[in-house]
Amino acid sequence: MQGTVETKVTNGIAEIEFFHPQSNSLPGEVLHSLAAAIEDAGRNTAVKVIILKSKGEKAFCAGASFDELIQIKDIQTGRKFFSGFAMVINAMRLAPKFVIARVQGKAVGGGVGLACAADYTIAHESAAVKLSELAVGIGPFVVGPAVERKVGTAAFTQLTVNATEWQSAQWALQKGMYASVHATVEDMETEIQNLSSRLASSNPEAMQKLKQIFWQGTDHWNTLLSERAEMSGTLVLSEFTRNAIEKFKAKAK
């Protein structure tokens, strides 16, 4: 696996860090490892709060791996790949601890989904967002419920329809995707550490009950996100989508 997922637990705080050399994109193996790491941290009684972060100083997450998307040849493989995003979102939703996302740079597609599936997201001012799926012939089907739940239908529609335009970190702050935006990485880190330290000394039972309240009305997401993964897995096989992905890959070279 080119990418990595690493977990470090210190003083009740689990830091889960993912990495991929292509702007922290998310191939299937990284998605499965990330979901497993979140589930493990959720079960670990020594962990009181979870920080989700990516490695490096630039992009937070470039979303789905185009290299892997172009290799999908049948609907079963497509469904399995997009189910990886469903697994991560559901792991974040079901973890009995608060998940804080650290977004240090741009987030695309699935990266926006991660930022929205976190209970509390803290970002740098460079953390612009874009749901680019429609531009390659798919749609943000799997991450859509998490994004819409966080920012509302109007903002979700804006991101989805205007699939080639970046929205600034300030826009994401105004829509509720980010809880705060910082001018320096140092300030961002300070807030994350201060908040996570306070939460690590808070009542874990109270936090668990609050988490259940935050996510009320999402009990059907296991089924919903599976159905959405099948939608994406089917569309990725179309000639339109395959041609669009090849064009995006060519531009990136």
Characteristic key phrases:
253 residues; alpha/beta; 2-enoyl-CoA Hydratase, Chain A, domain 1; two-stranded parallel ribbon; 11 helices; 50% helix; 15% strand; globular
CATH superfamily: 2-enoyl-CoA Hydratase, Chain A, domain 1
Structural domain tally:
1
Derived from helix and strand composition plus strand pairing, the structural class reads: alpha/beta
Q: Looking across the biggest beta sheet, what order are the strands in?
A: 1-2-3-4-6-8
What is the approximate shape? globular
H/E series, N to C?
EEHEHHEEHEEHHHEHHHH
The CATH architecture would be Alpha-Beta Complex
Q: Helix count? A: 11
Unreliable runs, pLDDT <50, ≥5 residues?
A: none
CATH topology: 2-enoyl-CoA Hydratase, Chain A, domain 1
Taking Cα atoms only, what radius of gyration do you get, to the nearest Å? 17 Å
Residues in β-strands, percent? 15-25%
Average pLDDT level: 95
Biggest sheet overview: 6 strands, mixed
Compute the separation of the termini in Å. 21 Å
Account of the 3D structure:
This protein is α/β, with parallel strands linked by helices and 253 residues long. The protein has 11 helices and 8 strands. Strands 1-2-3-4-6-8 form a 6-stranded mixed sheet, with helices on both faces. Helix 4 crosses helix 5 (144-151). The protein is globular. The two termini are 21 Å apart.
In short:
By secondary structure, this protein is α/β, with parallel strands linked by helices.
